[in-house]
Write a structure and sequence with these properties.
35% of the residues lie in helices and 17% in strands. By secondary structure, the protein is α/β, with parallel strands linked by helices.
Length: 217
């Protein structure tokens, strides 16, 4: 199958051959969010993807990424959450083109998302639909990391917190909440605040698996 994969996938895959840096300051993190038609990985579809690069405690705004995708699947009930209309005027691209651009951003990076299993699950289903393998990036969940940053007596056994909880905890404005890029930005700020609390030195410290990892299968 590898021989039949497109060049953009091979370039993405090859970017990991040298391995990830172990010093947290040297790691490139890509904080992402997806807005979807619902919560079923199989039946629902991504309507938009937002992502930001982050390195050495700095958000690299010039690499901000947001795309809206053409989809035939639609659920009017979720418009109240994300505001993306079926026939809205926003410019849309085909799913494969969105994935191709995102893969370039994800080269040799660690994915960060709030309830990362859902977002990565949606992306993997889209990749499979387009004849591509699943993502190979390491990943971090800000809900799990936030739980880890709390005193042990305050931690939840399932590690589940909404993004709104993190906004309140860290005084993060909810501007553009429930847009893909807006939620990616909020998640990036929360991630930086969590790093400041945890003060990890190595990537291995961040990637250690808690017993409730991952929240979303």
């Amino acid at each position: 199958m590898a021989a039949n994969l497109p060049d953009f996938w091979k370039t993405y895959e090859a970017s990991f051959k040298e391995g990830l840096p172990q010093n947290v300051k040297d790691v490139t993190f890509v904080v992402l969010d997806t807005e979807t038609t619902g919560f079923s990985l199989k039946k629902d579809r991504m309507l938009s993807i937002g992502a930001l690069r982050l390195k050495d405690s700095s958000i690299q705004a010039k690499d901000a990424f947001e795309v809206f995708l053409n989809q035939t699947t639609f659920d009017a009930k979720t418009v109240e959450i994300h505001g993306i209309l079926k026939r809205g005027k926003v410019k849309r691209i085909e799913e494969l083109e969105g994935l191709k651009t995102l893969l370039k951003l994800l080269e040799n990076a660690v994915i960060v998302a709030h309830h990362v299993g859902f977002d990565v699950g949606m992306l993997n289903e889209a990749l499979l639909r387009n004849g591509l393998p699943k993502l190979i990036n390491k990943r971090l969940d800000t809900a799990v990391l936030f739980n880890r940053s709390l005193p042990r007596v305050q931690r939840k056994t399932d590690g589940h917190y909404s993004l709104d909880v993190l906004c309140e905890e860290f005084n993060i404005p909810k501007t553009d909440r429930h847009t893909a890029l807006g939620d990616a930005y909020i998640t990036a700020i929360a991630f930086l605040r969590i790093l400041d609390k945890l003060k990890p030195v190595s990537l291995e410290q961040l990637l250690k698996k808690d017993r409730f990892w991952e929240f979303w299968k």
